[in-house]
Amino acid sequence: MRLACLTLLLVSVCWALPFRQSGFLDFMMEDEQISGDGPPVVTTKQEIPPEVPIGPVCPFRCQCHLHVVQCSDLGMKNVPEDIPSDAQLLDLQNNKITEIRENDFKGLKALHALILVNNKITIIHAKAFSPLVNLQRLYLSKNMLKDIPSNMPKSVQELRIHENQITKIKKASFTGMVHVIVMELGSNPLTSSGVDADAFKDLKRVSYIRIADTNITSIPKGLPTSLSELHLDGNRITKVTADSLKGLKHLAKLGLSSNEISVVENGTLAMIPHLRELHLDHNALTSVPAGLPDHKYIQVIYLHANKIASVGTEDFCPASFNTKKAMYSGISLFSNPVPYWEVQPITFRCVFDRSAVQLGNYRKK
Ligand SMILES: *[C@@H]1O[C@H](CO)[C@@H](O)[C@H](O)[C@H]1NC(C)=O
Ligand SMILES: *[C@@H]1O[C@H](CO)[C@@H](O)[C@H](O)[C@H]1NC(C)=O
């Protein structure tokens, strides 16, 4: 009770006055002056460091310090009131919020990061995000959203919305979001028919997209040419078509592990000339993808746990040594039906070091 009164007292004091670093005792001693209009004259010399940082205003039970509003793990069912208007980071993760209401973020113009991870959000009001004109990071992962929220702030640079119930990515979902750099959409019940062609087209600066552990069966079409990392592991992709990667001239990492890929079309690697790392392990490939000897930069290729039954001496390295600019630093081929003793050592003549090749044994289960 005492504590509650004290908190209330502080809140009302701080509401009216500019922020001052003071101890609890100062306020208690200045009791008389609180009702006055002028600022209190702080006379006490000895300051006791407050256990809970004191801000001008802070939601009940949250902690507010240096523009950070920390309200995680409090069992909250709603976004609290009294969020200071100068808040830059609002952490509401691990609560029980089910709905984001129209005025929940009213006036939070300074907010840079909003963390709503691990709640029970099913509804976000269409205007809820509109005050957040400076929001850069929006973390909505581990909720129960069925759709990508509409009207996300155009300023967002990082969107994390994995582990929800999203089934569709519509063309309008990311309209005008030209500042996005990182997008994490994995672990949603997406299918390829639910992902519109060109849904990602407006993301002109995006460098990282991850859509892992969904039910998509093909690489989404119309990916932005700015991409440098594309992670599509753990899906149900059956084929890598050259066309799907057309124009991705900055792509350096491509993750396609744990899919159902049996075909990598000829010409695919030529579409992604700056690729350095390609993960194709745990698929259904029967041969090493074509085009590796002609690719200048690829250094790491995972092909383990496929159905590759033979490996030729020209599969990885060019005939002439000078044509490949970067030597391989990692090739994995274990858990394939190819008898490893039949693979000629000369196959790996453009590998940086012998230990970079993992051949290993194949055991039929
Ligand atoms: C993919 O589909 C299967 C069956 O249709 C379903 O059991 C599974 O949960 C789905 N995966 C995801 C990530 O939604
Ligand atoms: C792919 O390329 C290889 C060698 O360049 C060639 O032998 C093969 O026939 C081609 N496959 C198709 C389907 O075009």
Tell me what you see in this structure.
There is one protein chain. By secondary structure, the protein is mainly beta. The chain contains three helices and 18 strands. It has a 14-stranded mixed β-sheet, with no helix packed on it. A two-stranded parallel ribbon has the order 4-6. A two-stranded parallel ribbon has the order 12-14. A hairpin with a 2-residue loop joins strand 1 and strand 2. The chain starts with a helix and ends in a 7-residue tail after the last strand. Residues 1-45 have low confidence and may be disordered. The structure holds 2-acetamido-2-deoxy-beta-D-glucopyranose (NAG) (2 copies). Residues 187, 189, 213-215 line the site of one 2-acetamido-2-deoxy-beta-D-glucopyranose (NAG).
Layout of strands and helices, then pairs:
Layout: H1 2-16, H2 24-29, E1 63-65, E2 68-70, E3 89-91, E4 99-100, E5 113-115, E6 123-124, E7 137-139, E8 158-160, E9 182-184, E10 208-210, E11 229-231, E12 239-240, E13 253-255, E14 263-264, H3 268-271, E15 277-279, E16 300-302, E17 330-332, E18 357-358
Parallel strand pairs: 2-3, 3-5, 4-6, 5-7, 7-8, 8-9, 9-10, 10-11, 11-13, 12-14, 13-15, 15-16, 16-17, 17-18
Antiparallel strand pairs: 1-2
One 2-acetamido-2-deoxy-beta-D-glucopyranose (NAG) binds next to loops.
Protein name: Decorin
Keywords: Disulfide bond, Extracellular matrix, Glycoprotein, Leucine-rich repeat, Proteoglycan, Repeat, Secreted, Signal
Function: May affect the rate of fibrils formation.
